[in-house]
Write a structure and sequence with these properties.
single chain, alpha+beta, globular
């Protein structure tokens, strides 16, 4: 990890209230919908993090944030391809790997933008 970059938990995700650009506002609203129910079962037990410079004051910018979600095995009933297409439409990327969450088989899912280096993030979390 770059010494001047840190990963911090944040609540910045889809904050569209002060955005004046209509296209960006619509994108932020779609991002917010993901964590308010439309992302289930892929976004179930989630936390929002920011990969930002250590000396940055104030909250993280929207493009610095990513979601780490632990979803129980959903292979039998969920359409992962359609969910990934939805993410790609709003400019987000998807990465999953198998893990144990609360002693049950689950997927560790990262939902992130292009500005977040997933290999560095995986090493730190």
């Amino acid at each position: 990890m770059n010494n001047d970059m840190v990963i911090r938990e944040t609540n910045v995700w889809g904050n569209y209230h002060n955005v004046r650009n209509l296209n960006k506002r619509i994108r932020m609203m779609k991002k917010l919908e993901l964590i308010t129910g439309k992302g289930y079962p892929f976004i179930d037990h989630h936390r929002i993090y920011a990969y930002k410079p250590k000396n940055q004051k104030g909250p993280a910018r929207e493009e610095q944030t990513f979601i780490l979600s632990y979803a129980y095995n959903y292979d039998s009933f969920a359409d992962e391809g359609a969910f990934i297409d939805t993410l790609n439409d709003i400019g987000l990327l998807f990465h999953k790997e198998k893990c144990l969450y609360e002693s049950r088989d689950a997927y560790k899912i990262f939902i992130y933008g292009n500005n977040c280096p997933i290999d560095v993030i995986k090493q730190q979390i």
